[in-house]
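Please check this.
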Amino acid sequence: MVKILFLHPDLGIGGAERLVLDAALAFKRKGHEVAFYTNHHDPTHCFAETRNGTFPVTVVGDWIPRSIFGRFKAACAYVRMVYAAVYLAWYVIPVEEPTIIFCDLISLCIPFLKMARGPFRVVFYCHHPDKLLTSEGGFLKKIYRAPLNWLEELTTACADKVLVNSKYTARVYQDAFQKIKDIPDICYPSINTEFFNTTVPKPLKEVVPVGLDKFIFLSINRYERKKNLQLALRALEHLKQILSESDWNRVHLIMAGGFDPINLENMEHYIELTDLAAELDIEDKVTFMKSPKDTEKVSLLYHCKALVYTPSNEHFGIVPLEAMYYKKPVIAVNSGGPTETIVNDVTGFLCEPNSESFARAMSKLIWAPELVDKLGEAGRKRFETKFSFDAFTEQLDGILNRERQIISEARAIEYEQRKKK
């Protein structure tokens, strides 16, 4: 058994949070001891594993502001993570003596973690280079971002091992960080199927006021503009033009997503989407849900007919895997990580990011119910073959064992050097 510490900026509800929790579950399954350290953890807005005692969670640096008058969010996030890293280096690592420190999202913490003495290894999981996630800005924005972007590459190179979530992200990583010569390892995320297997789906009426006689399309994504959720609404409106009146009467879209009440963009975008639904005259065809509980998400996946996944150039995408596990076809944009998880016309449809293409794919499923079952079965088989939790666990365990071997070799070399002295 070894000890593994996770350092993550905000243990809320999102794909990055699900990934680190699943990694922790994988390590725990192998008998290792795991603990989380984070800048922020709200028990009312998090995954169950961080509030039910599955893992100990320690909050460090939440007193540091997230922004300054609504600006400098990235800089504040960097400062918060550096503070947490220094705390670990001074007070935690010398006492806990971890073998691995697993961090993600913000690489600036890595050199500060390495201030601590001890034969531990730092593994950094790069979901996507942060420098590529920021929105375009003017001259002042470029000046502000320049040192942050430079620091990101410099500190990412300090990690002992870098993992990425897809071949797509590996290519983006190498293009973005051309000074880093080491090639990252690809570690496909998975999902905690044990939770799905032991959770009994609730009747749909207990989750949303929608009848089972409806052909339900489901969208699960955080309420963020980069997720392109408007595409789902516009595709639904376009679908109305394609279907007969009787088929249209059966259609319903459920939009469920992570909603943090202290996140301004979440609040703004939720209002934008509800306003757009009203503008498109499809309000009665859409049900919006904020931060569904894990048990509610299971029920939505179980009762829906298909998943509509709208982000472009998504780094990987956990939700399509969850839908595939529940034998649901996935309609997604033909770019990024979904091109590695979804096989077009076999497990779902890869579409151009426009309403016409999505609506056309949605109509195929409505007109051919047998196609829903066929694609769903193929999706489940692909999940079991390539993205199962067992495969994810073994991959992480292999990485851990290699890092342990490096530590052992380093200790042996140090011992020999001491003997010579």
User: Anything to note?
Assistant: The first helix runs from residue 15 to 29. The two ends are 33 Å apart (CA to CA).
